[in-house]
Design goal:
This is Periplasmic heavy metal sensor. The chain crosses the membrane at residues 6-24. Keywords: Membrane, Transmembrane, Transmembrane helix. There is one protein chain. The protein is mainly alpha-helical. It folds into two domains: 1-30; 35-146, Up-down Bundle (Four Helix Bundle (Hemerythrin (Met), subunit A)), CATH 1.20.120. It has six helices and no strands. It has helices at 3-25, 38-46, 50-83, 94-121, 125-135, 138-141. The longest helix is centred in the middle third of the chain and has 34 residues, at 50-83. It is flat, with a radius of gyration of 23 Å.
Length: 153
């Protein structure tokens, strides 16, 4: 086989591999709202009007800011925690840092819960039933593992 033919064959195989990966990555994974993020799914499932969408977007902005602040705190604590690995006699106990990380993670979960209460509050009475049904799907909707094909759970 000529070198040039071999190179063409490799290019074709790599291109096919990329196409297959692209298709697999963009499969539906059990959601009936293919290609949409949680925001779009919530808007569609709750049938928000334009005013509700505007309110929802404000809630999202505040929620992201609050979560980001707490995520940064966790990151700093994790850096400090794992920095202890390089010290012979750390002055800080790892257990105390782990407890602080746990407390902040608890705060994040509270922020998430309150965010969904805020979303429920902007629902009209006829939408509350849909929100209640959606609430049973929320943990899966925001699970990053749902974006990975064939991830064992």
């Amino acid at each position: 086989m000529k070198k040039q033919t071999f190179l063409y064959l490799i290019i074709v195989v790599l291109a096919m591999g990329n196409i297959i990966l692209f298709v697999l990555k963009n499969q539906n994974h059990g959601h009936s709202f293919h290609g949409q993020g949680p925001k779009d799914i919530i808007i569609k499932k709750l049938d928000f009007d334009q005013g509700q969408v505007a309110d929802y977007e404000k809630l999202i902005g505040r929620h992201r800011k609050d979560v980001r602040e707490n995520d940064l705190k966790i990151l700093k604590l994790k850096n400090e925690l794992y920095g202890l690995l390089s010290k012979n006699k750390p002055t800080v106990k790892p257990d105390s840092l782990i407890a602080l990380i746990g407390n902040i993670q608890e705060n994040i979960e509270t922020i998430h819960y309150r965010h969904f209460l805020d979303i429920k509050a902007i629902c009209r009475p006829g939408q509350v039933k849909r929100f209640n049904a959606l609430s049973l799907e929320l943990s899966g909707l925001f699970d990053p593992k749902n974006n990975l094909p064939d991830t064992p759970r």
